[in-house]
Write a structure and sequence with these properties.
single chain; D-Amino Acid Oxidase, Chain A, domain 2; eight-stranded mixed sheet; 12 helices; globular
Amino acid sequence: MTTPTILIAGGGIGGLSLALTLHQIGLRCVVFEAAREMKPMGVGINIQPNAVRELFALGLGADQLDRVGLPAREWALVGLNGRDIHAEPRGLDAGYNWPQYAVHRGQFHMLLYQAVLDRLGPDAVRLGTRVTGYAPDGDGVRADLALADGGTDSARGALLVGADGIHSALRAQMHPEQPPIHWGGVLMWRGTVRARPIRTGSSFVGLGTHAHRMVIYPISRPDADGTALINWIAEVTVDPAEGWQHKGWFKPSQVADFVHHFDGFRYDWLDVPAMLARADNAYENPMIDRDPIPTWVDGPVALMGDAAHAMYPTGSNGASQAIVDARVIGAKLLQHGVTPAALAAYDAQLCQPVSELVLRNRGAGPFGMLNVVDDRCGGVFDDIETIFPAEERAAYMAGYKAAAGFAVEQLNAAPPIIAPGARL
C-alpha cells in the first residue's frame, strides 16, 4: 500500500521540524518553500527546554545544537539604574532535564534543513515554490503552487499543513475576514556584535523599561580572545495610532539612526552605546503579531507556527511553540491516522491555550514585570524588595512558564509527546 503524502507549505523552523517528525514516524511528505535558496537568515532566538526535549527526540542532540548556539544559564531583568529586578537560572541550571538554547536563528534553520535533506532526500524540499491556496480533492487536498519562474503548478496530498509564516496564504483563505497584522507601537532594531559576554557568560538580559529597553544575550561560545557573538535587540515604543508607516517589515538600518535613544544606558558593567557602535549589522522591524483565530483547521488543512499563532517575542518562545506544534501533529497522526481527525485533535489540544499565550505575550509576557516596576517607581529603585517582592516576582514568572508549557516540574514529569520508536 502506498503511504499517503502530507504536503507542507513553508520550509522554516516549523515546517522542517514537521518534516523530520513525519519521517521519524514513517510518513511521506514534501515541503514547498518560496525561497529559491536556503540561506542562514536572522539573528538570535531562544529554544526553550520543552522544544529542546523534542529536538533531542528527533536525534538533534547537544553536539549539534552546540554548533549553532549555546545553553542559556540565566534570565534577568535590570532596571534603568542598572540594578537587578529579577534574575533566575535557566535550563539545566534551573533543574530542567533539558537545556535551554540561545542560537543563531539562521544557523539553526540550516541545521534543520540539512537534517531534512540527509534523512528524507533532496526531493523532500521544493525550493522556489510557494503554496498560494488549497481546495478539496476527493478524499485529500490540492495545493495550488506559484513557481519562482512565474509558472503555476499543483500538488495533491492526503493533508496540507500551512507553516507559511505570519503572511500565510493558507490562513488568509481559511479566515478571509481576519484583521490585518497587529502592531502595538514597538519598534525593534536587531543585530549582532562581537563582545565579552556579561554576568554568567550565557545570560539573557532585559534592560530598561517596558517602553524603552535592550535585550542582550550571547549566541556563541567565547573565542580564544574572550569575545562571543552577542545578539542584541533595541526597543522603543511609539504611538501606533496611524499604523505601520514604513515600507516592508524587516529592513537594514544604521546604528546612528537609533542609538541616541540609549545614550543613558551606561553602567560600570555595560556601555550600551559603545557596544552598539561596534555592531556587525542592524535591522529595523516592528514588533507584530496576529489576533487569535477560532480554529487552525479546515478539514484536511491545518496551520502551525507563525501561520497559526504569530506572537510577540516577549516570551522567547515563538520558535519553540512551532517545534512543539510539529510534534503534537505527529502524535495525533499516530493516534488517528493520516486523516482530518488527526488535525482536528491537534487543533483541540493547542489552539485555545496557545491563542491565550499570544495575548499574554501582547501584554508583555514575562517582560510585564518591567511595567510593574515602572508603575511603582518609574524604573529607578534602591531595593527591589520594597518595590516588587521576590515572592510576587516568582509567582509572575511561574504563571508565564505554566502558560507557555515549560514549567519545570510539569515538563520534567510529562511523558514524551511521541513515544520512542512509534511509527505508523
